Protein: ABC transporter permease
Amino acid sequence: MSLPDLSRGQHRSARQDGAASSTPIDLPLLGPDGAMLLPSHAAQGAPAQASPPARGAASRPLAGAPPRRPSGRWRDHSLGLIGIAGFLLSWELLPRTGVVSQAYLSPPSDVAQAIIDLGGQGELLKHVLASLQRSLWGLLLAIALGVSLGLLMGRFARFERVIDPILQLFRQTSALALFPVFVLFLGIGELSKVAIIFWASFWPVLLNTIGGVKQVDPLLVNAARSMGASSAFVFRKVVLPAASPSIFTGVRLAGTYCITALVAAEMIGAHSGLGFLTLNSQEVFQIPSMYAGILLLALLGLALNYVLALVERGCTRWRRGLASDG
Structure:
């Protein structure tokens, strides 16, 4: 027997001894393209493919799993409703139980009845429309002039240095302190009341617009100019969108100051409006109607703030897109 034959015989016997003494090891089978084969596909040489999950399997909760908790937003709304209900209940019980005299604090049920009575007499709509008209005129004028002047002052430093000392002097003057001046020039009619609302609402819009323009990133402006953009294009497409969050902050603050100034304006020399209704009801000791006027003023302020928030959300939709991309 030759040496190669002897060597092959020794190797064959060694493999047989190893197969008898060791446990078989299942090695993965590979197909022609290198894909792993399952045992059921080994004979056919087909690559293994995972079966797709059943439709709706991911959405069905597992058996015995705890029920889903309500979302955080719904939970927050529920807590807010509980707080409002607790406040109204306390307000109702304090005068009803005699803890506070009803001569000073009317229960909310009486206030609601007073609102219904005013609505039935046609007085409620008249007062609400008068207050709404005055507040909107003053606020719109403040937004138009405040944003325009703020953009100019924030964009052109020399113009700001010229006009800023005068504006700082006027800014410290209260709208109520200027009411005699407004009456002297504009009379006791609607113009003087709109002027007070305008004066109170103008300053937050102006200051926030100036701050927003100054906080625009210079890299954005320089990048637009390096690509050949004109000054008008840079102002319209870069500066104004970047300053819009600060501008809308000032507008919403102006909405709050607008209602405050409205009350003061209607309490002096007015014959209609929610401020007039509140003061006149207190003078004739109609306490439920007085609280009705206060409540309606608060609701008017909430409605105005909600509308301004919707406008801000629509005009700054691009910010939410950037936040979601980030």
